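Reviewer comment 2.1 asked that we show a complete input and output for one of the modelled complexes. We chose the zinc ion case, as it is the one discussed in the main text.
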Amino acid sequence: MSDENVLANLAKAVVVTMHQIPQLDQLPVDQLHKIPLGRLRRDATRLHAVCRYQKGVKKSEISGPENVRCVDVHPAALTEDWRRYAAFLLYHEYLHALGFAGHDRTFRNLEALWPDVEAQNMGKSFGNHLRRRAAKWLWTCPQCSKEHPRTRRGMGRYRCRECRVVLVDVKVGPDKPNA
Ligand SMILES: [Zn+2]
Ligand SMILES: [Zn+2]
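Response of the prediction step:
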């Protein structure tokens, strides 16, 4: 299945789930399917997904899906391993699309209603996954072997938080397993 189809199917499933969340039943959930879906650049490492509003619309003026230009999701989240997290990302961006522009308490309370609680907590490991894919160097602790994937060398400037030993630079080989 192509990324586009995976994304379209996920989005449909997310909207179906949203229709089952009573706290959302006054909101234009049935308009969400009109929002074009896209993918972030493959090498993005900080952003996991984004809700892009129409040009000229201020965040305080967002009233619903008609103010949204598109929702983009990281392509690495569309692989089977991360699809549950991608569904949660879509849910998060759809809440923005419903007019909740910031990450305030109301937003966080709604976000926590997503039934897949485990997926809600996959952000950190997905971030690590992205950094590991992009890494050229592993700052490695010679004592406990903990690795910190980075794009640049550490040049002996950093120490292991646990062991206090200086981290050494290990080049990521061409056969890195998580590429
Ligand atoms: Zn957000
Ligand atoms: Zn260590």
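DSSP finds five helices and six strands in the chain. We note this here for comparison with the apo prediction described in Section 3.2.
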